[in-house]
Amino acid sequence: MYTPDINAFDADVQRQYRDYNKDFTDKYGFTPTEYSSLLFWQLEEYYSGINGLTYAPIWKSVEKSYFLVEKKKYDEETARLEQRLHELQSKQELQQENEQQIEKNISQLGCYAEQMELSEEIKEKLIDKVNVYSDNRIEICWNFDSGFFDLETMHKCG
């Protein structure tokens, strides 16, 4: 698209300059050329009927050109939406897998919810190792990723 260099004009002309093509496109959502094509396309019926003086093949080529432009836009939008759909489906599958893992962990932990003491069985199934530091800090490394780690108080080892 041609973009004139407004700096080539005098200052008084620069203040008056407007890009009418851009203004038209911004206001109506299509370019003046597309608008002209649309007008020719709509006039085809008038000129091809009883009111027509002549019917030139130009109407068919304008209609075909307009169709091809619209088809290209449609195809591009369809491709973009299909890509977005694929991305969202992938995210959804990942979320479902994470939720299934969390549910599995919860169901595995549920049998230990009523126990008040740490038995050897619980220790073997849930705890990988326990690190005790000189500053009286204790770090518990779990055998699973619960999805419930609070970054302030708990974190995964390693």
Q: Shape, please?
A: elongated
The biggest beta sheet is recorded as: 2 strands, antiparallel
Strand content: 5-15%
Query: What gyration radius follows from the Cα positions, in whole Å?
Result: 35 Å
Helical content stands at 55-70%
Output the helix-strand order.
HHHHHEE
Count of DSSP H/I helices = 5
Cα end-to-end separation:
57 Å
With strands numbered from the N-terminus, the spatial order across the biggest sheet is: 1-2
Structural class: mainly alpha
Give the beta-strand count. 2
Mean pLDDT: 76
Low-confidence parts: none
Overview of this structure, please?
- This protein has 158 residues and is mostly helical.
- The chain has helices spanning 11-16, 20-28, 32-48, 58-110, 120-126; strands at residues 127-132, 138-142.
- A two-stranded antiparallel sheet has the order 1-2.
- α3 (32-48) crosses α4.
Name a few traits of the molecule.
158 residues; 5 helices; two-stranded antiparallel ribbon; 7% strand; single chain
Task: Briefly say what this structure is.
The protein has 158 residues and is mainly alpha-helical. The protein has helices at 11-16, 20-28, 32-48, 58-110, 120-126; strands at 127-132, 138-142.
Task: List the topology elements.
Elements: H1 11-16, H2 20-28, H3 32-48, H4 58-110, H5 120-126, E1 127-132, E2 138-142
Antiparallel strand pairs: 1-2
Helix pairs in contact: 3-4
